[in-house]
Design brief:
By secondary structure, the chain is mainly beta. It is 10% helix and 39% strand. The structure holds magnesium ion. The site of magnesium ion (MG) has 8 residues, from β6.
Length: 261
């Protein structure tokens, strides 16, 4: 299923997204996932609306955002880093989440803010110490798109990444969550800056694929339903400036669009 979270006159709601006669629609309301206790399903009549007409919200309410750095060979090389022997983990603050269409704010503290288009895993079931032979699929609710916005100058200056990755609006996410794609088979990740293609990769080139990441992360910390795992970015990262338009497209997940302010 594909779903989104969107604003209605009855508050935020989750809706199933379907394609009908060449157009995307929010077909029906669905119950909120268990971690989003603030949202109540509206039980009145809902008529399908065009997806393009909806005021979209971030489709996840994670307790944490566990990111993976340098997970594509070509991107590790472009930043002058060695190929990692293990996944490189860092956290992004949930307060950085930004809805599709929202404005990425360039903070005064930084002179170089980069885009990083990424496939992200959405956890569906509490996961701790997933075994080497255990199937990871039951723990995955689906996938979405993240722009892992990074203040590159502060990342280099601070020596750790909390500030550089954690500014408000630095985690655009959406527009949908889908369990209908298979990253292991290879899905295309493409980032455009003002309509110009700047990143073009495939999840086939992940150094540590989805299953390896989930085993590695859950050996460290328990993942909760709704937790978000951006899996790393392909080569081509670069700076954004006020007035720019960002678009990250992943096959089967649509396009995450944001403006820069
Ligand atoms: Mg990243």
């Amino acid at each position: 299923m594909k779903y989104c979270r969107f604003q209605t006159e009855n508050g935020p709601q989750y809706g199933e997204v379907v394609e009908r006669s060449g157009q995307m629609w929010i077909n029906q309301l669905i119950p909120p996932p268990p971690e989003d206790s603030a949202t109540q399903l509206f039980r009145g009549i809902f008529e399908a609306i065009p997806f393009a007409a909806a005021t979209l919200l971030a489709p996840v309410t994670p307790s944490k955002i566990v990111c993976v750095g340098r997970n594509y060979l070509d991107h590790a090389r472009e930043l002058g880093n060695d190929l990692p022997a293990e996944p490189l983990l860092f956290l992004k603050a949930p307060s950085a989440l930004l809805a599709p269409g929202g404005t990425i704010w360039i903070p005064p503290a930084s002179e170089r803010v980069d885009f990083e288009g990424e496939l992200a895993i959405v956890i569906g079931k509490r996961a701790s110490r997933i075994g080497p032979e255990e199937d990871v699929k039951p723990y995955i609710r689906g996938y979405t798109i993240v722009n892992d916005v990074t203040a590159r100058d502060l990342q280099n200056k601070d020596g750790q990444w909390t500030r550089a990755k954690g500014f408000d609006t630095f985690c655009p996410v959406g527009p949908i969550v889908s369990d209908e794609i298979d990253p292991a088979a290879g899905v295309t990740v493409e980032t455009r800056l003002n309509a110009e293609v700047r990143q073009h990769g495939t999840t086939r080139d992940l150094i540590f694929p989805v299953a390896a990441l989930l085993r590695y992360i859950t050996a460290v910390m328990t993942l909760e339903p709704g937790d978000l795992i951006p899996t790393g970015t392909p080569a081509g990262v670069g700076p954004m400036h006020r007035g720019d338009r960002m678009a990250v497209t992943i096959e089967g997940l649509g396009t995450l669009m944001n403006v820069v302010g």
